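Just scan my protein:

——
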Amino acid sequence: MWRIFAFIAQSTSEGGHLSPPPSGNPISLINERLRTNLDVLNHPDAMTEIVRQINLVWALIFIILGGLSVLNGYRWHKGIIIVLAALSGIWAGMALGAQVGDVMIAAACLSVLFAIIAWPLLRYSVAVFGGLAGAFAGANLWTAIGLQSELHYMGAMIGLIAVGMLAFMAFRAVVVLLTTVGGASLLVFGGLSAMMYIDSWENALANSLQSKPLILPLIVACAAGIGAVIQVGGGLKGLNEQADKADPVKQKRKAAA
């Protein structure tokens, strides 16, 4: 799923850090890292290198989009899936642009095509993107629980197949997983990158990532879990209503009224 985001920021994600940024495009670096290490949250060196190269503007965009996806992903799931499909079209267009002869035209055409196809085939689209989110979660969970990192693709395959098939039996659950895992990951990337802009925090944060490699998977899992509870519970209002139902005093007052 992260490859989809790779091409959105490609032309605007250079530099931006207070300290001189390393060479190379940071979003392309995320894409490249995920090709070899889908369990990137468990690799502090790779994470530190990535977040130091994300432009501050895109870090803030990641934070906003991630927060909205975590809290309201299911409510806006149609729009999110269509946007993801359109971004997939951009990725495919840029991959095939050299053969076509014009990257922009290929990306635009495939973006519209993928979005239109995803609209009526929403369940299948959720299966595809949910499967990718499951693969990302499975790979990182595989390494986080102490299994061989070199075999993290096994966890990715389990997550891909399990979540992809689950989309046809538990549609809402897969949408919640997709939006919370993707949103929580965006929050981590954006939040870490933004904190790296504070000079006094940069080295301490990098050292903390190196000494505590499991902290990032834990943060992502907690953020995704919080988002899942909020989405399934119907938002903050829904959670408050459920809490009131569990209060016998309020139930007696409601019955008396």
About this structure: Confidence is low (pLDDT under 50) at residues 1-25. The chain has 13 helices and no strands. The two ends are 51 Å apart (CA to CA). The longest helix spans residues 171-195.
